[in-house]
Description:
By secondary structure, the chain is an alpha+beta fold. Helices cover about 30% and strands about 20% of the residues.
Amino acid sequence: MKNNNKEEGEFVLPMDTLKIFKLNNEKIDNFNLLMNKFGKFKKFSKKFDKKINNFNFSVFGKLIEKIKKDYYGKIEKISLYLKFFEGEVQGRMVVGLGGPSVYEASMTLHHIYGLPYIPGQALKGMLRNYVILNFFSSEDEALKDKEFCKIFGDKENKGEVLFFDAFPIDRINIKRDVINVHYKEYYEGKSAPCDNLNPKPIFFYTVENTKFKFVIGSKKNMENYKIMGNGLLKLFKEALENQGVGAKTSVGYGYFSVSNMKE
């Protein structure tokens, strides 16, 4: 079968796409396209890392203003009880590290805007897990609790509380990080964990010290939802600050400092 893809510079693209791209002297201003469509279908390279660092992140400013107006503006018009608040990443955060990617590690980016964001599903899962760990001995026990099922849903009914996607609302800081696997052959069952084995660094990108806006909504007043006497918003704040969201939370990633939250 004939290979209609062509590699040129840092790009591996279908030849007709590459031709259009070159003829129009296009510049990539969508970070998602740069990360997931226009990079080499190999591991991270120094040249590709340089291209990431040289990306014009100022385009994020206009996108953030658009999201504030179009996304959050439309949410405010929904006929629900809504709670808006902000949180800033303390250190670094990575969401979607194990997701599908042409590289060894991934990062959740919005497919249209290209911005890093936190899916509402991830936030719901974070809070659900936090509640189970702190108030129940198991998930089965939690599912016997009416208030828990009312909030998060079960097999028969969907949850009454909505967790919206969270987007950055200020400057976005994206930084490269590394996982250094020292005994790759050992974990693959090919060798003993000896000092002569070569480390295998795996590079990935994180969001650092960036502020996000969170929204929780329901048809009922949020004050009606309590678990073991604890308000829902209080628990959400605790989960963001004490458990974190995304991957590698056990080593300090994904923790937030929450502000502007009123129960």
